[in-house]
């Protein structure tokens, strides 16, 4: 199976979740478009413990830490949706998006369109902060109106039961994991949360 990790915004915890998911499934990992250094591939590979995972190279590796469309323009490049071809693998694959759902790739296409084009169910990362209900429900509304398959949602950050409850109620999505705010992140921590994720993955 192939899964596409996206989020309600930038710095929501996609790379952390991608590392946990990659470790849990012993899956391959791919970041199709990277804007800025260090790369998320480097981050995830430093956190994954298993020896099965292959880390596939980015299709677009851009220097400027900005929206992909702006970072590409800075380098006189143009990103096209058909640039993105699934890496050859017989393993499960975790794909990490860039920024939030509607981060533009170009003047017409958004990051979420990669998931649609590659037929990869979405895992939505929702970090919890003041205003996150609105951002999360707007993201969910877009996914649902466009009939984009969603495997589930992962909450990231200090628990806020009322925020989580109302998001669950209006989304109907399965909660795959509730990640607390982590002070320490290393391979052992990732392995622990990978085991926790698997408890909710198959039921």
TrEMBL record:
<comment type="similarity">
    <text>Belongs to the dethiobiotin synthetase family.</text>
</comment>
<comment type="pathway">
    <text>Cofactor biosynthesis; biotin biosynthesis; biotin from 7,8-diaminononanoate: step 1/2.</text>
</comment>
<feature type="binding site">
    <location>
        <position position="15"/>
    </location>
    <ligand>
        <name>Mg(2+)</name>
    </ligand>
</feature>
<keyword id="KW-0067">ATP-binding</keyword>
<dbReference type="InterPro" id="IPR027417">
    <property type="entry name" value="P-loop_NTPase"/>
</dbReference>
<keyword id="KW-0093">Biotin biosynthesis</keyword>
<dbReference type="GO" id="GO:0009102">
    <property type="term" value="P:biotin biosynthetic process"/>
</dbReference>
<protein>
    <recommendedName>
        <fullName>ATP-dependent dethiobiotin synthetase BioD</fullName>
        <ecNumber>6.3.3.3</ecNumber>
    </recommendedName>
</protein>
<dbReference type="GO" id="GO:0005524">
    <property type="term" value="F:ATP binding"/>
</dbReference>
<keyword id="KW-0460">Magnesium</keyword>
<keyword id="KW-0963">Cytoplasm</keyword>
<keyword id="KW-0436">Ligase</keyword>
<feature type="binding site">
    <location>
        <position position="40"/>
    </location>
    <ligand>
        <name>Mg(2+)</name>
    </ligand>
</feature>
<feature type="binding site">
    <location>
        <begin position="96"/>
        <end position="99"/>
    </location>
    <ligand>
        <name>ATP</name>
    </ligand>
</feature>
<dbReference type="GO" id="GO:0004141">
    <property type="term" value="F:dethiobiotin synthase activity"/>
</dbReference>
<comment type="function">
    <text>Catalyzes a mechanistically unusual reaction, the ATP-dependent insertion of CO2 between the N7 and N8 nitrogen atoms of 7,8-diaminopelargonic acid (DAPA, also called 7,8-diammoniononanoate) to form a ureido ring.</text>
</comment>
<dbReference type="Pfam" id="PF13500">
    <property type="entry name" value="AAA_26"/>
</dbReference>
<feature type="binding site">
    <location>
        <position position="40"/>
    </location>
    <ligand>
        <name>ATP</name>
    </ligand>
</feature>
<feature type="binding site">
    <location>
        <begin position="11"/>
        <end position="16"/>
    </location>
    <ligand>
        <name>ATP</name>
    </ligand>
</feature>
<feature type="binding site">
    <location>
        <position position="96"/>
    </location>
    <ligand>
        <name>Mg(2+)</name>
    </ligand>
</feature>
<dbReference type="InterPro" id="IPR004472">
    <property type="entry name" value="DTB_synth_BioD"/>
</dbReference>
<comment type="subunit">
    <text>Homodimer.</text>
</comment>
<keyword id="KW-0479">Metal-binding</keyword>
<keyword id="KW-0547">Nucleotide-binding</keyword>
<feature type="active site">
    <location>
        <position position="31"/>
    </location>
</feature>
<dbReference type="GO" id="GO:0005829">
    <property type="term" value="C:cytosol"/>
</dbReference>
<dbReference type="GO" id="GO:0000287">
    <property type="term" value="F:magnesium ion binding"/>
</dbReference>
């Amino acid at each position: 199976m192939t899964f596409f990790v996206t989020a309600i915004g930038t710095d929501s915890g996609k790379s952390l979740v991608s590392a946990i998911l990659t470790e849990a499934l012993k899956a391959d990992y791919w970041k199709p478009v990277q804007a800025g250094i260090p790369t998320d591939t480097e981050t995830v590979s430093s956190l994954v413990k298993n020896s099965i995972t292959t880390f596939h190279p980015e299709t677009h590796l851009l220097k400027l830490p900005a929206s992909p469309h702006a970072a590409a323009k800075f380098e006189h490049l143009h990103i096209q949706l058909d640039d993105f071809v699934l890496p050859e693998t017989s393993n499960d694959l975790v794909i990490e998006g860039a920024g939030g759902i509607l981060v533009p790739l170009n003047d017409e296409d958004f990051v979420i369109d990669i998931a649609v084009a590659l037929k990869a169910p979405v895992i939505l990362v929702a970090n919890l902060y003041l205003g996150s209900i609105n951002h999360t429900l707007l993201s969910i509304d877009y996914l649902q109106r466009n009939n984009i398959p969603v495997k589930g949602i992962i909450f990231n950050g200090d628990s806020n039961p009322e925020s989580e409850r109302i998001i669950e109620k209006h989304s109907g999505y399965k909660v795959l994991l509730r990640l607390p705010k982590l002070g320490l992140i290393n391979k052992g921590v990732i392995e622990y949360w990978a085991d926790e994720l698997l408890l909710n993955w198959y039921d």
